[in-house]
Amino acid sequence: MLELQNVRKTFEDVHAVDDLSFRVETGDIYGLLGPNGAGKTTTIRMIMQIFQPDSGSITFQDEPITVKTKDRIGYLPEERGVYQKMKVNEVIEYFAALKSMDMSVARNNAEKYLDRFELLGRAEDKVEELSKGNQQKVQFIISIIHEPKLLILDEPFSGLDPVNQVLIKEIIKELQEQDTTILFSTHQMAQVEKLCERICLINEGKVVVEGNLKQIKRDLGSRLIRIESDDSLDEIQSDPSFTWSEMENGALLAELQDDMEPHDFLKSLIGKVKVRKFEVVEPSLEQIFIDQVRGGKA
Amino acid sequence: MKSFTVARWEFLHRIKSKWFLISTILLPIIIIGFAVLPALLMQKVTEAKTFAVIDQTDWVGQKLQQTMTEKYSLKNGRPMYQWINLSGKYPEQSRETADSLLSDEVITGYIIIPQDVENSLNVDYYARSLGNYSDLQNIEQNLSNIVMRQKMLAHNISPDLISDLSRSVNLEKYEVKAGKVSKGNELMAFAGPYFYIMLLFFAIFMSSQILMRSVLEERQNRVVEVLVSSVTPRQLMSGKILGLGAMGLVQVVIYLVVAQVVAVYNGMSIVSVTSLVGFIVYFIPGFLLFAAFYAAVGSMFTSEQEAQSISGFMSFIAIAPIVFLTFAMQNPNATIVKVLSYIPPFTPFFMIMRMNISSLPWWEYALTLSLLIVFVILTVRAAGKVFSTAILMYGKRPTMPEIWRWIRA
Question: CA-nearest residue of chain A to B391?
Fold first, then answer.
């Protein structure tokens, strides 16, 4: 379990992270979201002990994170690179050694993952001879080579083709099954929706929304409905229960008034039109993200 | 422990690189090559040279041929010079013959010995090129001897007596160091300090520059963020310093062995226990000082060009003793030399120079070393702070007040 409590960090006059708290349970994939400059990287760097927080506490498995804890953490930074002039297997082994790994285990793991990423034949090649995408894979292997208990991935999918995105997703899922706690930072919302159960959306260093993704969607998005009917929906479109409505491919998309529950509205429809399909539309995370970030600023 | 992992990697990585091979193995070879090759080439002459003599005296030319054939021989035992004797009776014709031989490249050159050579002391030499300096010197010297000898005999003076009487005094040189008297060698007296200063300069600056480049590279290709997620910036910095320091030492050992082999081959010795211990004692703090400084510089910049301005300035510190060397050799006790050896960044260079010129009292070692060590500790600490703060800062370059604030933090 990774826990941040009231963490603050100020650079010069900028509150990079302001009173941030969240908790990632063991074996969870947790999404840390936010626009550029929201404080995600600073938060991660504080977890990694690269920066010290000005106040607040960060614990992993109920212990403060120290240099020793770092051996159990894997980190794939957004700004990442590998030594260009070194051989692939040498690079992986060096970073494994820096995690205090047993070298024979490291070699086994390296072989296993290189094989999965179809890079085994290139283990003796220099990194600079690899394509950007393949270098990305090597970087990902480096972050998981030591079988970390906590894995922090900052934009792990950027620069990868769909096939390899799926492969990385698979591996992330496998690690989750082995009780690895995963903190996943991104602004690619589609990935978060597929992977994360819980999320924390931050903006300007502060938490905007935090919790179970489904719950958040329900809380923030339950006012949007979609009706399909064989009858004309023109009459209903001007219903005073809506704050806003729109026809979309013959279906009606509308947002309900605050005091109107979807369930009650459905009841009121009966008799007026023949409803073929009635749906409470969950907003995409992207929608929530944009709404919340804009709303926060307004 | 992790510092050692970094150190081990830096050490192995560098030592296996082509660059190390080139700079460590090739550099001494090149230096020795430049020193030894010309001499080797000179010895390698296997072809005899032919000169023509137009002798109007009837005896000088013959005598010259005889002496020089006996005196100079090639490696294969054959005489180095061959002679064509052209009659001196018809000088015009002989010259024509000589000129045609010259243009046909049969002979290297020819000399005309005039009849009154004993009085005029003048012999003319003609050749396509006058570059064969040593040959000409040989001819000149032997001609002089022959003529001189003849004149002495003419005056009833024994040439053997003269050569005995005109022998010069030989100055035997002894070096007195720490109460020990040893037979001195002027060449060594200069070569010793010069060699050690150059060695120190190379060992310190090559390794420190590599250290700086390595930090710059890790910043440029963004490996640094992955690194500091496994080790602390301090572990990273100390690991690099250790690893590259070890590499520097390996280089030093190789250079020392090569230098000693060359010295012994030439009947000298360049490595002694005192000079070795002294070198190591000043090399270690000296290297730490510059390495820490360069690491901090590397952490503040993103490109080598930017960093070069500062690092270039730093190498002046090391060049200073080389500039001072000749002066200091003649005036090892000059105030300026003494004062400079107490200023920490200069200390290693000046002390190594001074200790190889003359023996110093123990307190000078103690005092310069203590000052140096205190300064090294302060520098390493400050550099560590700058390194830890700057290593992940991209974009704007830190200003002097900022750096000062980090150091005091």
Answer: A50
Cβ within 8 Å, pair A84-B221: yes
Chain A residues with CB under 8 Å of B6 CB are 98
Phi, psi values for residue B38, rounded to 5°: -55, -45
End-to-end CA gap in chain A: 35
Largest interatomic CA distance in chain A: 74
Distance CA(B338)–CA(B210), nearest Å, equals 31
How far does B48 lie from chain A, in Å, by closest CA? 55
A39: left (phi over 0), alpha (psi -120 to 50) or beta: left
B312: number of Cβ within 10 Å = 9
**Cβ-based contacts of A75 with chain B (< 8 Å):** 225-226, 229
Q: How many other CB atoms sit within 10 Å of the CB of residue B86?
A: 23
- CA–CA min distance A28, chain B (Å): 21
- pLDDT band of residue A263 (cuts 50, 70, 90) is confident
From the list B225, B230, B235, the residue facing A79 with the nearest CB is: B225
DSSP letters of B93-112?
HHHHHHHHHHHTTS-SEEEE
Q: Does A99 touch chain B (CB under 8 A)?
A: yes
pLDDT of residue A297: 44
CA dist list (Å): A125 to A86, A100, A107: 8, 25, 16
CA distances (Å), origin A43, targets A37, A50, A58, A202, B189 = 11, 10, 10, 10, 63
A163 at B interface, C-beta within 8 A: no
Mean pLDDT over each residue of chain B, to the nearest integer: 84
pLDDT, residue B322, reads 75
C-beta of residue B231 within 8 angstroms of C-beta of residue B224: no
Claim: this prediction has a pTM higher than 0.90: no
Q: Nearest-CA neighbor of B273 among B287, B260, B292?
A: B260
Is B222 within 8 Å of A86 when comparing Cβ atoms?
A: no
In chain A, which among 227-286 make CB contacts under 8 A with chain B? Answer: none
Q: How many CB pairs under 8 A join A and B?
A: 60
d(CA B245, CA B370): 21
**A40–B contact, CB cutoff 8 A:** no
Test A100 with B221 for CB contact under 8 angstroms.
no
CA distances from A40 to A35, A114, A207, B214 (A): 9, 30, 11, 28
Q: How far is A80 from chain B (nearest CA, A)?
A: 5
pLDDT digit string, tens, across residues B27-59: 777 777 776 676 666 665 667 889 999 988 888
Provide the pLDDT for residue A298. Answer: 38
CB-CB neighbors (< 8 A) of A84 in chain B: 221
Q: Looking at this predicted complex, what is its ipTM?
A: 0.79
Per the CB < 8 A criterion, the answer to whether A34 and A203 are in contact is: yes
Angle at B313 between CA B310 and CA B318, to 5 degrees: 130
Burial of A23 (0-12, 13-18, 19+ CB in 10 A): middle
CB-side exposure of B2: number of CA atoms within 13 Å?
21
Q: According to the model, what pLDDT value does residue A34 have?
A: 85
Helix (H, G, I), strand (E, B) or coil at B148: helix
Helix, strand, coil share of chain A (percent; to 5): 40, 30, 30
Distances in Å between the Cα of B95 and the Cα atoms of B88, B139, B221 are 9, 19, 76
* Short-list B299, B288, B289, CA closest to B212: B299
Q: Judge contact between A195 and A29, C-beta under 8 A.
A: yes
Q: A95 — contact with chain B (CB < 8 Å)?
A: yes
Q: Which of B223, B402, B406 to mutate to test the interface with A (most CBs of A within 10 A)?
A: B223
The Cα–Cα gap between B40 and B38 comes to 5
